[in-house]
Amino acid sequence: MTTETMTRPVTLILLGPPGAGKGTQARMLEEKFGLVQLSTGDLLRGAVASGSPAGLAAKAVMEAGELVSDEIVLAVLQERLDQPDVAKGVILDGFPRTEGQAEALDGVMAARGAAVDQAISLEVNDEAMVTRVSGRYTCANCGEGYHDEFKRPETDGVCNKCQGTEFSRRADDNAETVRTRLSAYHEQTAPLISYYAKRGVLAKVPAMGEIDEIATKLGDIVSGLQGG
Ligand code: AP5
């Protein structure tokens, strides 16, 4: 994919249960449109790895598949939003996840004289998500995502992007924890679909097809925002 210049910075939210493809699609949009992917899951895993107070508080909650407190999530996100590269426009991947987070985001955007441009709900079947998540692994060097069945490297054991040969799997990617994460999604995050529908910024995208087909649909939406 080539990098295209955005005509204006946009704020895009990807909603969807674990395994819906939020991270996969966010990285593709980042590459194509020069937007910045902000994954609260990645930010929290970074905090856990660094042993910061936020990370220490989040570790057990994440391993259990439950949601980290709004206070901690907002603190790690705010720190990231203070960095200058986000001025290019952002794809929020895994945030917001509760109504409290959505309201806090509205406040952050309003303080910057902006608003959420588009929330996209990736529509998938729960049972397929258990297979998707438990087969997932990433390049330990560059973070490129792969799947045992659906997205293998072109050469087995070698990352397409950086030629790294070390890969890792997430501690919360087992079938039992995925079911807890699916429940958390339906109870606490799915209500945000109507939250954004009421604001007139929601698009629902079927996301059970091929990764590239879904990327084309999302790219069309972003191109529309770019012109808007
Ligand atoms: P987070 O890291 O956000 O995980 P998640 O929402 O559970 O989502 P995943 O990363 O599992 O899935 P994804 O939709 O990105 O799918 P992917 O593209 O990788 O959160 C982890 C934890 O952090 C939470 O449980 C919580 O504890 C905490 N947390 C994070 N944010 C929080 C917040 N805002 N508030 C509170 N707590 C928070 O795809 C999955 C696999 O499927 C990949 O292998 C991929 O190659 C494959 N795949 C993707 N698309 C397709 C396709 N179309 N067909 C076939 N395979 C596909």
Structure description:
- The model is unreliable at 1-6 (pLDDT under 50).
- A hairpin with a 5-residue loop joins strand 5 (136-139) and strand 6.
- With 228 residues, this protein is of the alpha/beta class.
- The chain contains nine helices and eight strands.
- The protein is globular, with a radius of gyration of 17 Å.
- A five-stranded parallel sheet has the order 2-3-1-4-8, with helices on both faces. Strands 6-5-7 form a three-stranded antiparallel sheet.
- 48% of the residues lie in helices and 14% in strands.
- The structure holds BIS(adenosine)-5'-pentaphosphate.
- Residues 16, 18-24, 39-41, 44, 61-62, 65-68, 73, 94-95, 97, 101, 132-133, 136, 145, 147, 150-151, 181, 207, 211, 214 line the site of BIS(adenosine)-5'-pentaphosphate.
Short description:
The chain has 228 residues and is α/β, with parallel strands linked by helices.
Cα separation of the termini: 22 Å
> How are helices and strands ordered from N to C?
EHEHHHEHEHEEEHHEH
Q: How many individual helices?
A: 9
Question: What is the structural class?
Answer: alpha/beta
Oligomer: single chain
Strand content: 5-15%
Bound molecules: BIS(adenosine)-5'-pentaphosphate
Which geometry do the CA atoms define? Answer: globular
Rg computed from alpha carbons, rounded to a whole number of angstroms:
17 Å
For the biggest β-sheet, the strand order reads 2-3-1-4-8
Q: Which whole number gives the mean pLDDT? A: 93
Number of strands: 8
Spans of at least 5 consecutive residues whose pLDDT stays below 50 are 1-6
**Biggest sheet details:** 5 strands, parallel
User: What's the helical proportion of residues?
Assistant: 40-55%
